[in-house]
Amino acid sequence: MKIFVLNCGSSSVKYKLYEMETETVLADGKVERIGQENAQITHQSMNHGEIEKTMPIYEHTVAISESLNLLVHPEVGVIDSLDEITGVGHRVLHGGEYFKESVLVSDKELALMDELRELGPLHMPANITGIRACQKIMPGTPQVAVFDTAFHSTMPKRAYLYAIPYDLYERYRVRKYGFHGTSHKYIAGRVGQLMGKDPAELKVISCHLGNGASIAAIDGGISVDTSMGFTPLEGLMMGTRSGDIDPAALDFIMEKENVPMSNINSMLNKHSGLYGIAGVSDMRDIEKGVLEGDKMCQIAFDMYEYRIRKYIGGYVAAMGGVDAIVFTAGIGENTPSLRSKLCESLSYLGITLDEERNQTRGQDIEISTPDSKVKVFIIPTDEEVVIARDTAAIIG
Amino acid sequence: MDIRKIAVLGAGRLGRGIAENAASKGYDVLLFSQGAGGQDALKRIEKSLDRKLAKWAITESEKKMILSRISHTLDLKELSKVDLVVEATIDHFYTKQELLRTADHLCRPDVVFIATSSTLQVSDLARGITRNELLVGLHFIPPVPEVPVAELVRGFSTSERAVEIAKKFAAQMGKEIIEINESPGLVNPRALISLINEAAYMLDEGIGDAAAIETIIKESWGMTQGPFEMADRLGLDLILNWMEQMQEEFGDRYAPCPLIRRYVRQKRLGVKTRLGFFPYTAEDTIALSQEQED
Question: Do B56 and A58 touch (CB under 8 A)?
Fold first, then answer.
């Protein structure tokens, strides 16, 4: 069975074609700068290496068609016909309260997704466009939507409600949804495999630390709390996002700086986090700055670590213990100094880190010592394989 | 037809605002201007973007992206490459009509033209061009990138297709489009003139001083500027000119308050002369001239 996985952004499309029997990636690629004369396609297939093309692409439908053409290309293609694709799995940002798991998409599901546009105005239109485009290009092929929020739909009310008038939840469903669900779901399953235990027996804290960052408390294989909220802005300090802040400070800033809420929104999402403190948003630059004695980089690093530590502590309390802490995504997988500092700060939990193993990159590895009471892992996340698996499972 | 590349004719405050707004929404923009003033139009747009960057409305990379989409030209022949033309020159009938005629010869025959004047009539401007069915009036209100509403009017011959294209363009610019009937002064400038005139009468009658009248109107209606500040920033000579046009069109209910005539005679024109309804510093004048017209 071959599954095509698609992640449509506002001006980009990323894709992978899987052979599901072995979960092998036959081809993958991306189309960037959609909407411009110089859109770029980067395609990599199992047998033919990388291809780059620059051409005008103004619509997602064209971007997806171009990607599919490369899959069946007489020279570089990996399949003979698009009919070989059994199903398409789409990454969709928001499932709201409608979608608690992945679904086969019909007009009814698309109509509900349309209603959720306002909860994800940057991503949802592109996600929906991607589904419609595939329906047009491959009319007989089942389309499955896999939601970033779905894994967190198991959170209890006490975790997902905000302590604001309940009417606002009833009227507009204002609540914590959480994101990176597909990644946290992958981690929950994979850590169980690595520990040789059923995920239902484990209490896991999954730290997805990329440019966007979130932590999930996973008890018995299901999400019971997560740091991102109604939008991805809540929670940890991130590359350019502030994470948690007292909302009253925003009103104060608006008045002092004489700016509207739209500027504040942009400030919190794009000018804050590591960038807001140190002027750089990439953790590698922060680490370099720390080594060179840059004070602001040091402050940013300390804040970043401290906030993760607070959330981990909070989630240990929420679950009444923890068996494993997992680091994943760009920063989580590639920043030994951060993991080292965190584990040192959390030594009261009985964590001891194997510093040599902590230097490993790009592979699943346990980095705590054998006698550590809480196991610590690096697990490179794989959201696409979860999307492919869900798609395969749904279309049978 | 998809609109990807637009031409903005005129690089004054309005033209630059439209260019910046359109580029920020993904359009490639050809900014056309005659004369030396237009040469630094791109620098002025960059300054405007820098002000937004300083207040976090955009990021450094968004600024670069917006600027990369705008090019300036003195050569009208480049109009052959565009999908839409927005005319944003000074409100002078013959200047506008001449420019529209030239553009009419140079553009592809299916290209829609947008006129931005609030005082000149679309039907009158359309008489001079062959594509009269493709001319639509779209009144953007400065500062264009910040004001979320635009007034749309059609002339006698404007086609439904042209209106649809103009609406789509304005919606992509992030504007709520409100269609109204062709009428001098449309809604926004006409209401503004009435407000300024009434405030000037109250001042002239001694009901309160300028600050008192300004504050009551501004604060009670949640406005960012009151009528006197708006008049001072626009220039009392321009306001008087609008009022006279409205008076000619609609009669004496638009007769300018004698106080405004007196101020204009005294060259008390507002921020640009450092005295209007309120006094201003030299810095205010410089700041305004940087913000506004070339």
Answer: no
